[in-house]
Design goal:
Elements (H helix, E strand, L loop, with lengths): L1 E5 L4 H17 L4 E7 L4 H4 L7 E4 L15 H19 L3 E4 L5 H10 L4 E5 L6 H6 L5 E4 L15 E3 L14 H9 L7 E5 L6 H12 L7 E5 L5 H4 L8 E4 L6 H6 L2 E4 L3 H9 L4 E3 L9 H11 L3 E3 L7 H12 L2 H13 L5 H12 L4
Parallel strand pairs: 1-2, 1-4, 2-3, 4-5, 5-6, 6-7, 8-9, 8-11, 9-10, 11-12, 12-13
Helix pairs in contact: 1-14, 3-4, 7-12
Amino acid sequence: MRIVIAGGGTGGHLMPALAIADALRAANPAVEPVLVGARRGIEAMLLPRRPYRHVLLSAEPLYRGAWWKNLRWPFIAWRVLRQAGQVLEREQPALVVGTGGYAAGPVLFAAHRRGLPIALQEQNAMPGLTTRLLARWATQVHLGFPEAERHINVRPPTRVFAYGNPISPPLNEPSRRTRARAELGIPAEARVLLVTGGSQGSRAINEAVARALDAGALEGMWLLWSTGERHFEAQRRFDVPPKRQVRRFWDPIATAYSAADLVVARSGAMTTAELCAYGLPSILVPFPHAAAGHQTRNAQALEQAGAAVHLPESALNGAVLADRVQDILKRADRLAAMSRAAAGRGHPDAAERIARQLLEEVAVK
């Protein structure tokens, strides 16, 4: 029994697809997930390392800031729809699941035209274009935020669930932190800062961290830093293991999360879901141009819950970032309170619950 999972372009769409694939395989080993993404997406780098068959389409994103690039889209769309149809013809899936991104829409549309059941997983409080367009045809819609339901048009027999965003859940064992630190060569008593700008990296965050390091403002702590592919060369001079470990992308990121005390990150839906599942305090710097300002809303929600500090990019610089980091790390009581607040908003079993519903849809027991 095959289930096609289409999604990618960024880690925010690829990681849910992988988490669902893992949960499906764990729930029923007879199910074979087949991942479909884009050649231009991060999946071209990550999927070859994963144990699933995968297909990469020649899809391209819609360019919001450079409309003239979209003039090629009618030709691209025809080619990608043809490729998607070939995948579905070859795989004959029982179900097609979309997790968003510019490869998901064509695959879901091609599946609907062939009469195949489709299901959607939407990460954000403001649903993306694919979800808004295709929700009415889906058998199931899975929401990361219950607030998203008011923005989609569904009708019976579509069922809507809000289990949270699917992530690879942290291992539920007391030694997780100890093992992660031993693997990375970090002492048990060290204070560890993890910095990540997501799969694409964040120039603003990277430059602020670099300035703070150059000024000596982050001394006394250990640093795990994910720069993103495009920014790695500019920051690799700071890679002095084991105290400063700079990588393009942490894959899997579970080891870094397990070792960290505090995280500086963007506030995309998947990042915030992971931070809460791991009970990690954070300083969140929303991407200011995110659609519908959803990253800012995520950061504000976690700050109001006491789990994070919201630091707008307009206020970000090396000195301010270092001051926020030091203020949290030097106060064990505040660190512990933020950790409890984050854990209270976590949904580490979301992938498992979504998988159960998907398997029920195709009557695989």
